[in-house]
Every structure is written in structure tokens, then in C-alpha cells.
């Protein structure tokens, strides 16, 4: 078997915050981020209208859009697409016989457990109850059902997106804003940042 054209693709999730409309010159800043990340394929969330097409065309990339707020842009051709209630997938064709499937998700954003804990000081039991009420569990279960045929095959599968839920364990202490200061101050600071995750470079923080 010959060497793969793209042996370790860089796959990135990027919430583009209302199609880049919430910052000055948002599209240009997003293009700089994508180029700087070294990404091969990007799963976009909060990307509506012609936004994904605009990014892709300026990069000379390929694109696919689910008609809502999810889109995939790629250096490499995109083939068959797949849908779920809160997810969107596409087949990425790196080279003949060399493919992967990328699934991109955007789960419901409210209620959000870290805000409940940090700003409203809710009990664990109440936070867990509100998590169940958020609909995110049902959404991701629907995505996993749609992914099942891909997961049972030999083609690599990537799942990225804006899950609007924290990891169960981070290995680090809570941020200072959750242990000091007033909720109003902390809330402002917490909402002033977004993060996109790349399988190669880890957390990359963009300040709004």
C-alpha cells in the first residue's frame, strides 16, 4: 500500500459567531484563523446563508451547507452529505481510495451547566436536571444514530462541533471568575471568548 496523500488530516471545529457578523471585519479574521490553523477540513457552526461559501471561495476550497447553521469547508473535494437534527456530515475525498467522513454538530445552548454553577450557584442535582431538560442528550443520540453506518465501516470518521457542554473532567481547577468576583463581572468575561479545537493544535482561543 502506498503512502497516503493526507496521513494526518487537521480537522477543526469553528463556531463563527453569527457568520462573523459580531466582530469588525469578521470574515477576514476568520480566514486568517483558518489559514493559520493549518486546517484541512473545518466544521462550521453558526454559519448561515452564503457565509460558508464565501469562506470557501476566498480560500479556494470546497464547501457544503445544511441549509441551517452547519457547514463544512475543505481543501479537498466533498462528496455525499448526511443530516441529523443537530448534525451535518460529509464525505471528504482526499484522493482516490482515500476518504474520511466528517460530522459537525451544534447542540442546543441553553441551559448551560457551567453558567448555572459559576454564576447562579445552583446545586449539582439541579444542574443535572436542567442538563436533561436542554435536549442535548437527545440531539447527540440522534447524531450518533445517523453516524452508525459510518462507524461500522473502515473509513475514518471525525466528530466535531459546538456541543455546548463541558467535559466531565478537565484536570484543571475552576477559572478564577468562578471563585471570586461578582456573577455579573464573571459573566461578562466568560462570554467574551470563543474557542475552536483542532486535532493537531489543541485549544485555540480567539478573543471577541
Task: Describe this protein's structure.
With 208 residues, the protein is of the alpha+beta class. It has one domain (11-207): Deoxyribonuclease I, Chain A, CATH 3.60.10. Helices cover 29% and strands 30% of the residues. The protein has 6 helices and 10 strands. The chain has a 6-stranded mixed β-sheet with strand order 3-4-2-1-9-10, with helices on one face. Strands 5-6-7-8 form a 4-stranded mixed β-sheet. A hairpin with a 3-residue loop joins strand 9 (193-198) and strand 10. Helix 1 packs across helix 2. The protein is globular and about 55 Å long. Residues 180-208 have low confidence and may be disordered.
Distance between the termini: 46 Å
Number of separate domains = 1
Instruction: Report on the biggest sheet.
Output: 6 strands, mixed
Question: CATH top level?
Answer: Alpha Beta
**CATH architecture term:** 4-Layer Sandwich
Roughly how much helix do the residues carry, as a percent range?
25-40%
Strand order of the largest sheet: 3-4-2-1-9-10
On the 0-100 scale, what is the average pLDDT? Answer: 84
